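ok trying this again, last paste got cut off
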Amino acid sequence: MAHACHDRLVVLSGRGSVVVREWTGPAGAPVLLLLHGVALDVDTNWSLAADALAARYRVLAIDLRGHGTGLPVSGTFRLEDCADDVAAVLLTLGTGPVIPVGFSIGGMVAQLLWRRHRDLVAGLVLCSTARNVTGSPLERLLAMAMPWAVVTASWFAPFSPVGTDAIAGPLLDVSLAPAQRRAAVAQMRRVPLATALDAMRAACSFSSHLWIGGVDVPTAVLVTRHDRIVAPQRQRRLAAAVPGAVVVEIDGDHGVFLADPTGFAEGLRQACAAVTLPVAPTSSTAA
């Protein structure tokens, strides 16, 4: 059964306006806040799973700055700014503490939301994400090159046929049906290339190693077993670093939310249940 869904324009003092999508869910249900990955938006990352979650939760979702209907980027793209944007939305709506559900770079924003605004976080669900993504020599080399790519894209994007889809398209599963890939790639192209590259640079610079062990709210980590973008072992290390974190594993690559929406939704359901039930198991695995 489909659940009611609507968009509302929320004016944030000193920041601008952002569109918040809401699936109402049962009265008094815990509140989930969905945070998407780089070069994506609410529709692409979450629309196929959010309705399933709304059977048990009030579900909110917003586009990160520079993406979709999110706030504009002013200067450098910073994950900390994204976390503060989220906090401003929650305070304006008066939601009280919520459970951020962050995918990939959205999972990094969720971690920062806990660190910077702990009173707004009741739990964490971290999907296909990590404490950092720049450990190997090759990854460090790419991270060092990223700032130059951002500057180049800013200068030459108006004259170049290369769009964000050419950079972010490889994030999608190779098994996607042609129509699904075309729709996702069309959305990616709407994100300015310089913004997408700068967001990737921010992800390459992110590290929560020094503080993620202090997380004091129920946490679940949804691991995508065949992920080519965020190595599964990095996802598992994130889970191991958070005291008492529940691990839910699903088969799928980084674009599992499109390639296998049913499996993704079931993994999310288990992960969210693990942080909202009175007693959570120490480990869980979804086939």
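PB: full thing came through this time. The first helix runs from residue 42 to 53.
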